[in-house]
Automatic annotation (TrEMBL):
One of its GO terms (molecular function) is lyase activity. Keywords: Lyase, Membrane, Transmembrane, Transmembrane helix. This is Formate hydrogenlyase subunit 4. It is found in: Membrane. Its main location: membrane.
Amino acid sequence: MGNKILLNVIQVIVVMAFSPLIKGVLNRLKERIQSKRGPSIFQPYYDIWKLFHKDEIVSDYSSWIFRVTPYVVFVTPIFVALLIPVLTSYPLFFAFMADMLGGGFILALGGFFATLAAIDTANPYGPMGASRTRMVGFLAEPVFMIVFFTVSFVAGSTIPYIVQKHWVTPIANFFEPAHVLVMIAFVMLIIAETGSIPVDSPSGHFELAMVDESKGLEYSGRGAALVKWGGCMKVFVLFCIFLNVLVSPWGLAQGDHIGEVLLAVPLILLKMFIFILILVIIESSLAKLRLFRIPEFLGAAFVAAVAAVMTRLLEF
């Protein structure tokens, strides 16, 4: 038991330590694809460190929700990291504390508080961005539910570790139509949840066109650092769910020896870098959608998820 708790702690440390690196690589590759030099892959570390050393300014019109939100956004991905296979293919101490739906609700809690905090300020851009983000979330949540239902139906469980064993361990399962459709739907969800093109453009600085970034415009200092760090960890956790649960357990440690678990760290990062490259190529080939075209994009993800369910049911 003690060893499994230690491995859970190591998973959390890995998520906290390497999530800004994943975000930095993602930003750098986006710029390189466009023939630009781009920022350093360590730029998110510099930004977080710099923000922690700046003063925090809070609006007089804000309530306790605005002050608490950065900590909620920071902590929720850490809780999810305790439940999913980040480094090991076998369940750890906290693996059965919640299932995939519970993990999804925990992640959504951070977004819910971020929306409340944006509305809590007197800045007109915050509520505008919050309403747009909730619109995207409202359309994305049914897709999440159907994707989780499909993989849970096949595995006979909603625990991520058990789903990973039954869903992707037989190599033949990877090429099944239902599996391919679920992966397509989840990739589209990742694009929407991380605010990437065609849903949003994180590199843009025009407030009226922002979807996700405008929620945190009022934060500064430590609050902005926690929000930025929490956003990086959320991306890392979503990548882990997709790559380790839905795609392949390759790179995950099979034994409980500390050395074997630490060896899984570079392998998982390598897998993420390959996925980031594919994601950037897809994103660079698309244009940002108008606000009222975003439901069409998420509607396509919904159709893919429903088709996966129907395909799987017909197989039975």
